[in-house]
Amino acid sequence: MNTSEAKEYLARREIPQLFESLLNGLMCSKPEDPVEYLESCLQKVKELGGCDKVKWDTFVSQEKKTLPPLNGGQSRRSFLRNVMPENSNFPYRRYDRLPPIHQFSIESDTDLSETAELIEEYEVFDPTRPRPKIILVIGGPGSGKGTQSLKIAERYGFQYISVGELLRKKIHSTSSNRKWSLIAKIITNGELAPQETTITEIKQKLMQIPDEEGIVIDGFPRDVAQAISFEDQICTPDLVVFLACANQRLKERLLKRAEQQGRPDDNLKATQRRLMNFKQNAAPLVKYFQEKGLIMTFDADRDEDEVFYDISCKKLVEKYGFTHLSTGGLLRNELASKSERSKLIRDFMERGELVPSGIVLELLKEAMAASLSHTKGFLIDGYPREVKQGEEFGRKIGDPHLVICMDCSADTMTNRLLQRTQSSSESADDATQTIAKRLETYYRASIPVMAYYETKTQLRKVNAEGTPEEVFLQLCSAIDSVF
Predict the structure, then answer these.
(1) Cis peptide bond prior to 69, omega within 30° of 0
(2) DSSP summary character for residue 385
(3) How far apart are CA 40 and CA 36, in angstroms?
(4) Predicted confidence (pLDDT) at residue 299 exceeds the cutoff of 70
(5) Domain count of the chain?
(6) Average pLDDT of 401-418?
């Protein structure tokens, strides 16, 4: 079964809603025998008439009585026709934003559920107008999603949305509401908030900003089910930014954030649970977006400005219609996929050896082939590292049209790398010695590579000492001189 078939099956059978409700019931009831409890819940699903009758709190309280539907028992769609009449003088058409939620007098859990269902009847974006570009930023807790999302939004003039902040504000403003009190406990324990609720909050926020050129959404989705739900109910994103970060670094950052901000979901127990959830969900989520050709991976272990500099490469991608490929990112994506090849790559890395150039070239070829039908060219970052790699690339793929060397002094590179290692336990002297060896290796390999390409293709040196904007203008000049 391919991704499309799986997605259709899950959506048609209402499977995500069923699992969400079962999980909420387990966390609330904490049964001694969870298997017996789940069997009783599934029996209740049959009695109710199927998965489509299951709501977020079906199994939270077995004694809960169903209140009568809104508007005297009429159906949801007839209620919509009365509330939103389709006449040209009425201000709210099918694709316009909904009135403020308080106009529906939400005071009970049932009202909240009904309103969520009303919102599901509406397209988030008007299909007759260009919709905003949507960038999703995902990564582990503490990977820098909020920082990088804000930087992206500021750089490109996009609107910023933090899903975590949306939920925290809602919890704070509705602290007496039973549903949101339960969600607060779920989040404080390090679990994911109910999917249906999270999607509804995102949709309501998007409906308030229909005229934005672009929107950066921080911290969503957290798993494949959320990704599928986002596409079904909102849209397919234009880009997914994945911030890859070592588990130990995530722990360090979360502990530091707990001291500085005192967020309730940064307690030790919740942190461990969130990291475990991330570890379980990251690989399938990254693979899901990889198959759609939507994801770009960045090494988030580094200084935040360095990470954003890499993300800014997307400016070249947007300006020239190129596809950006990073050998480091391709290797990280392959490791996350848990394929047979990923095991081989991991073996080399664990032995401290370089991944064979043949494997790297294989990954490049596959990534280029996957994007060939919808790109104007490729921007390949950090490759080749040695002449042998360049020769192999030329034989099996073809010589590049342009090779750009990002040129800056050894002092600048040393200072930037030292800033990157400031948060590590390595002493300044040890870090300086390590960097010196890395630079020696770089110079030894790069000089022959530049000499090789000077005789075969266009080689341009770009002064990388300046600001990201200054470097970007030089890059554009180099590309414009060739294409």
Answers:
(1) no
(2) S
(3) 6
(4) yes
(5) 3
(6) 86
How much is the pLDDT for 136? Answer: 93
Query: Which residue in 232, 233, 227, 376 sits closest to 294, CA to CA?
Result: 227
What average pLDDT does the chain have?
76
Token pair in block for residue 248: 């130990």
Mean of pLDDT values over 315-341: 81
Model confidence band, residue 122 (pLDDT cutoffs 50, 70, 90): low
- Nearest residue to 458 via CA among 400, 380, 385: 400
State the greatest distance between any 2 C-alpha atoms of the chain, in Å, as a whole number.
Answer: 81
Q: What share of the chain is helix, strand, coil (3-state, %, to 5)?
A: 60, 10, 30
Q: Cα separation of 262 and 168, whole Å?
A: 13
Instruction: Report how far residue 286's alpha carbon sits from residue 336's, in angstroms, rounded to the nearest whole number.
Output: 7
Closest CA to 64 of 102, 113, 31, 13: 113
Query: Is 461 a residue whose pLDDT tops 80?
Result: yes
**Distance between CA atoms of 395 and 211, rounded to whole angstroms?**
48
In terms of pLDDT, which residue wins out, 71 or 233? Answer: 233
Domain holding 15, by residue range, is: 3-120
The strands making up 214-218's β-sheet, listed across from edge to edge, are 159-162, 214-218, 133-139, 239-244, 295-299
The number of residues in the chain equals 483
In the numeric block, which tokens belong to residue 455? 């005789």
Report the distance separating Cα 279 and Cα 235, nearest Å. 26
- Residue 242 to residue 219: CA distance in whole angstroms: 10
Interacting residues of 88 by C-beta distance below 8 A, sequence separation 6+: none
| Predicted pLDDT of residue 140 | 85
pLDDT at 69 over 50: no
Instruction: Give bridge partners of residue 440 from the DSSP assignment.
Output: none
Return all residues near 147 (Cβ < 8 A) that are at least 6 apart: 304
User: Is 338 part of any domain?
Assistant: yes
Same domain flag for 59 and 145: no
Q: Is residue 174 part of a domain?
A: yes
The residue type of 282 is A
Confidence of residue 392 (pLDDT cuts 50, 70, 90): very high
Whole-angstrom distance, CA of residue 390 vs CA of residue 452: 8
- Domain boundary residue, one of 399, 431, 464: 399
Cα–Cα distance between 265 and 274 in angstroms, integer? 9
In a shared domain, residues 210 and 322: yes
- Rounded to 5°, the CA angle 6-9-14 comes to 125
- The mean pLDDT of 255-274, rounded to a whole number, is 67
DSSP 301: T
